[in-house]
Amino acid sequence: MPTRLEEVAAELTPPRAFDAACRMVVDYLAETVPMGVWAVSRVVGRRQTMLVTADRAYGIRPGVEVAWSTSLCRTMSLGSTPRVVADTALVPDLAEAVDAQARDAVRVGAYVGTPILQADGSLFGTVVGLNPDPLPQTFLQHETLLDLLSSLLSSVLEADSAAVESARALERAVSDAETDPLTGLLNRRGWQRWMEREEDRFRRFGDPAAVVMFDLDGLKTVNDVEGHDAGDRFLRRTAEALVEAVRAGDPLARLGGDEFGLIASVGADDAGRLGDRLQAALADADVPCSVGVAPFRVDGGFTQALAEADAAMYANKRARKAARPVHAGVAGVREPVVEVTP
Q1: CB neighbours of 22 closer than 8 A, spacing ≥ 6?
Q2: What Gene Ontology molecular-function terms does this entry list (predicted)?
Q3: Residue 231 and residue 149: Cα distance in Å, rounded?
Q4: pTM above 0.85, yes or no
Q5: Are residues 235 and 317 located together in one domain of the fold?
Q6: What is the C-alpha separation between 260 and 239, in angstroms, rounded?
Q7: Residue 177: other Cβ atoms inside 10 A
Q8: Are 125 and 94 part of one and the same domain?
Q9: What's residue 332's pLDDT?
Q10: Are 208 and 308 in contact (CB under 8 A)?
């Protein structure tokens, strides 16, 4: 009869959704190697985000973020501390990270961590376990098991990522009906369908993203004073400036009238700077506008990020109007963008 581990490995071997594989691994570990919490995390920039958790001691849920600089997994990933630590007090190099966790009222007596790698060998995230109290030294025997499961997750991640990229390429090829004919950007229908398609994928992998909303200042004045042909040129100039300023592949849309939207592949720490840069780029193109930015979070999704970015954009508009009169076609307007703090 196959063991439970052999059954899990067999189920993970065929291509399957990465989030389902993470759930299976975390549930298996919670059943066979009980700890205060087991989780699969994603590491992007300065943040470590929990994607899947099985918690019985800490109240850690999917979507919880911790600073990578104070994470116990950081020293593990660098190879300076062990992957399995039965008693954190016996590993001096973990002392600073353990103290940082204690300041956040998280007591860590035992720690397990093993990396999940992307196809190019870079760090995607970790399988991590924490326990409030130290565990017997016999606990160290689980390192081989952890390495096996993280290796299996790395394989599933590679296969699922390749399938996602193929699906995205196909979707781009059939998106003519979702394109704004004036600017060549996505229209509102394409924007909404993109978010519906990508919501599960971003939640699955914990990929970094931010929603950016733009509202142009001068379109109505241009249409009224110079005519609709000039207004069309104004919109095309806006689209060209944005395409030049954003990363290739990031979905950019004209949502109707003078409103544009962007899903940027940046983390929460870089979202505010991106908004400032895009607002400045549009001002340089004689397209002053209001901008709002909000990060995507696995526990809120695109619906929450879109609402927060929209609210931030209107707050930016009010602040700019209060600061000075707004005139259509005036370049160099570089008021600070309003960012939603994560």
Answers
A1: 40, 51, 52, 153
A2: diguanylate cyclase activity
A3: 57
A4: no
A5: yes
A6: 9
A7: 9
A8: yes
A9: 36
A10: no
Element (H, E) at 101: helix 95-103
Question: Furthest-apart CA pair in the chain: how many Å?
Answer: 81
From residue 242, give the alpha-carbon distance in Å to each of 80, 176, 255, 283, 284. Answer: 43, 20, 14, 11, 11
Tokens of 287: 């397209």
Query: What pLDDT was estimated at residue 333?
Result: 36
pLDDT at 15: 44
Q: Does 199 share its domain with 156? A: no
Residues of the chain with pLDDT under 50: 1, 5, 8-10, 12-15, 326-335, 341-342
What whole-number distance in Å separates Cα of residue 105 and Cα of residue 99?
A: 10
Q: Are 261 and 291 in contact (CB under 8 A)?
A: no
Nearest to 56 by CA among 114, 110, 130, 127: 130
306 assigned to some structural domain: yes
